[in-house]
Amino acid sequence: MKKTLLTLLAVIALGSLTFAQINLTPKKIAEANTPSFTNKNIRSAWVGGGFTYFHTANAGDEFYIVGSEFDELPVGSNITKVKFYHRLGETQIGEETVTFTNTSYTIKIYENPTLTPIFPGYNYYETNIGTPIYTQTVALDESASDTFHELELTTPYIVNENDFWVALVFDNGVGAMRLGDANPANEGKYYMYYDGSMIVPVESQSGKHSLGISLYLDDGGAYEESSDLQAFFLTYREDPFMPLVTSANLAAGQNLVLNPAVQNNGPDATSNSVTISFSIDGTELNSQTIDPFNLANGYFTFIGEESLTLTPEDMNTLGLGASFEICMTATYSGTDPNVNNNTACVAVTRVTDVNDNIVKAVSVYPNPANDFVTVANAENANIVIVNMLGEVVANVNNASSNQNIDISKLANGTYFVKVDGEVFKINVVK
Fold first, then answer.
1. Dist CA 146 CA 149 (whole Å)
2. Residues near 393 by Cβ (< 8 Å), separated by ≥ 6?
3. Domains of the chain (ranges plus CATH)?
4. N or C: which end of the chain has fewer CB within 10 A?
5. Would you give the distance in Å from CA 130 to the centre of its chain?
6. Which residues, 6 or more positions from 187, have their beta carbon under 8 angstroms from its beta carbon?
7. CA dihedral 394, 396, 399, 402 (to 10 degrees)
8. Residue 300, pLDDT above cutoff 60
């Protein structure tokens, strides 16, 4: 049986967490290969990189990013590493099964590239990709598969006044290029690939994907791990997990079923705590901290062992009307470069069975309350007061017309007063 909201929110952050990776078979985090973070004392910043979705590469394909367009790379900076994704074997991408076979990668750096459109109105360009000034090849096998590989450059590239591109070449087979969601930080930055005859842009329906290659800028300073957490609600708990849920229309008597989840958009794995909180119409219902919160870059986790379910009775107990908004916020105690995606909300519209005459007749005051609360026009009604966990803290049967209830022993917080099925929310403030 599904847990209702009142009980689920009390334990939702304490259950076991199931980790999955979009477009991959779900995996527990203990089995996931996380990036290698060595020499943290000399690492300064990763630039670019988005690792959520797959783009298939053929042998000989070159994928580029235009490094000189990043503001984080001033003249004189050292680029000491390039990070990319390596995978071998079969992988399900949508409805297609792809077998990745590439075992050799070459990093190339070009200076002074030019872009000359081939077809007017289309973003296809001639293959003048500039002058090659650096080449380095690495072989990777199954032992390194399904991980983000950090290739340390034999000779650091020193950023100068020239424009430059960094390319990843798939030398000997079908390869996997990991892309990400549209990222404002990468907006306007080129991300293209060479298909053997021309340079072609890689785009999604909402614009260019986040860059699929990362450059490591070493300025001699200390490195601070950074993880971009994103909160969202999913339709399903099984693959395919999409689509995301942002609104719900409920018929009379229909449950609201949501699957809250949090994703780490990177560039690093999380290692600090995260606080998960739920609210309805701006009123916080529950807030709990998971410490440590270990989530690899590019992976997401469902919050709780099962779906979050609100029955019509739950919604009535919470005093919810025909429309309300339920939100989840994930607050990371480490560095989170984009807090704008930490809150996800679902706008809910439902058909209610509320008797408007009773709602108008009964009232509860004062609000906020201290030692006593009065329920007016409640003659012969049954009154129940519950806390945020759904626990009954006071009840009166066969109430008087203006029933006074002693609440002097209740702690500060939000409570719900249920009067024969109608619900009123009050705040207790001492």
1. 9
2. 385, 386, 387, 410, 415
3. 5-22+225-350 (2.60.40.10), 44-218 (2.60.120), 356-428 (2.60.40.3080)
4. N
5. 37
6. 207, 208
7. -20
8. yes
